[in-house]
Amino acid sequence: MPVTNRIVHSAGVTKKLRQALVLLHLMTAFGWLAATLAVLLLTAHGQVEAALLVDDRLLADCSFMTVYTGLMLAANWGFTRFWWITVKLVTAIGLALGGRALFHDGMFVAGGVLMVAAIAALAWIGRTKPWGQLRPDVRVTPWRHPAIYLAILVTPVLDYVTGLPLQAIPAAAVLVSRTGRWPGRGVLSRPGGRR
Predict the structure, then answer these.
(1) Dihedral through CA 133, CA 134, CA 139, CA 140, nearest 10?
(2) Which of 139, 143, 162 is nearest to 152 (CA)?
(3) Confidence of residue 29 (pLDDT cuts 50, 70, 90)
(4) Nearest by Cα to 146 from 21, 18, 19
(5) For position 165, what pLDDT does the model report?
(6) For residue 24, how many other CB atoms are within 10 A of its CB?
(7) How far apart are CA 145 and CA 66, in angstroms?
(8) What pLDDT is stored for residue 60 in this prediction?
(9) Residue 64 exposed, middle or buried by CB count within 10 Å (0-12, 13-18, 19+)
(10) What is the structure's pLDDT at 194?
């Protein structure tokens, strides 16, 4: 019973931290789109060096942060439970990892248009959530512990400040949320109050 009470009392904190994660995801997604548009406009006007600077300083960080926050948000829905999540993850990871390949000699404008269209499509998919369930048999228990959201939100800041890739923290958060165990605290509450 104490574990359930702690979770109920922290529900407001968890909701606010989840909203902060959604806000971070939206901000970085819009940053990714804006940086891509800037690269597209700069390359269309022959400013390739400036476009590469925007790409290195802003576009890459925004794209990876969008994918990171998207992965963390998708963990609550189940990565392969809904078509829209699977399509968004595959497309976003492909764009983040292969985006630079779209901007090569002679293809800057075409690559920029393709990337802007793909990011806009990802936004539409995230808003409308089309296509239904891919695997209705998969059940996912949402995260309820505020520390998981806090670790997810702090990781990118630490990553940026230290310059070190700190994927271990969100990976541990996903593992904890999927197993329902919190080190030293027993089993977290399940839907319906079961332990």
Answers:
(1) -90
(2) 143
(3) very high
(4) 18
(5) 60
(6) 20
(7) 22
(8) 80
(9) buried
(10) 43
- Per-residue confidence band for 43, with pLDDT thresholds at 50, 70 and 90: confident
pTM score of the predicted model? 0.69
Q: HSE on the CB side for 175, CA within 13 Å?
A: 7
DSSP letter, residue 191: G
Asked if 132 contacts 114 with a C-beta cutoff of 8 angstroms, the reply is no
Residue that has been written with the tokens 């891509």 in this structure: 36
Which of 174, 184, 129 shows the shortest CA–CA distance to 21?
Answer: 174
Round to whole Å and give the CA distance between 145 and 143.
6
For range 86-112, the mean pLDDT: 75
Taking 3-state DSSP, the helix, strand and coil percentages for the chain, each rounded to the nearest 5, stand at 75, 5, 25
CB 138 within 8 A of CB 80: yes
Q: Could you give the CA distance from residue 70 to residue 79 in angstroms, rounded to a whole number? A: 10
CA 187 to the chain's CA centroid: 26
